[in-house]
Design brief:
Blueprint: E1 13-14, E2 25-26, H1 42-76, H2 81-104, H3 113-141, H4 147-174
Antiparallel strand pairs: 1-2
Helix pairs in contact: 1-2, 1-4, 2-3, 3-4
Subcellular location: Membrane
Main location: membrane
Protein name: GtrA/DPMS transmembrane domain-containing protein
């Protein structure tokens, strides 16, 4: 075997219908592998994840602004803290879905609108439950019942915990990676 680019050995494989090389053989190297969904070098993986986290946080920041605005509006109208948190999560979740589907995860497979909506809203409901639980703990177990305490427990502590959960759930279950085409099967050595 001869050395390919970057010192990787080349391998000979047969591809049906290929006109490259003798007897239809092609000589791919790891550099020719599809980059979408592939592991890639650690530096490029870190850059991709950093970009994804940044976009996720920007889209989430907009949804957060909607959440806080609606939450405080509900509190001003006399709604209780837990009910206000659950109510404010609905428009915030819609904003988050649009931002994540069409910006953060636009390069990922579309696995069906129904499937994505369902999973996105189920995981968002779980995250909203995490946030509402923070308000519950603050009110019931700790005895803090002011608007400031509600905002700290719902929009800082609860939001941080919910955001970590959402990031993991959305990238793992909702917006799946595109699967690379399978690599051609290497046949025996050259003759």
């Amino acid at each position: 075997m001869s050395n390919g680019r970057d010192g990787y050995p080349r391998r000979v494989s047969r591809q049906v219908g290929s006109t490259r090389g003798a007897r239809g053989a092609s000589v791919p190297s790891p550099v020719d592998a599809p980059s979408e969904g592939a592991a890639g070098p650690p530096a490029s993986r870190i850059a991709r994840v950093r970009s994804e986290v940044t976009q996720f946080l920007v889209a989430g920041g907009l949804a957060y602004a909607v959440d806080v605005l609606v939450f405080n509006l509900c509190l001003s109208l006399g709604m209780g803290g837990v009910g206000a948190k659950i109510t404010s999560s609905i428009p915030a979740t819609i904003v988050a879905y649009v931002g994540n589907r069409y910006w953060t995860y636009r390069h990922r497979d579309r696995t069906g609108v129904g499937r994505e909506y369902t999973l996105f809203f189920v995981f968002s409901a779980i995250a909203a439950g995490i946030q509402a639980s923070s308000v519950f703990v603050s009110h019931t177990l700790m005895g803090y019942e002011s608007k400031l305490a509600d905002n700290i427990s719902a929009n800082i502590v609860g939001m941080a915990l919910g955001t970590l959960f959402r990031f993991w759930a959305f990238r793992t279950w909702v917006f799946k990676h595109k699967r690379p085409d399978p690599a051609p099967v290497a046949e025996g050595g050259m003759s």
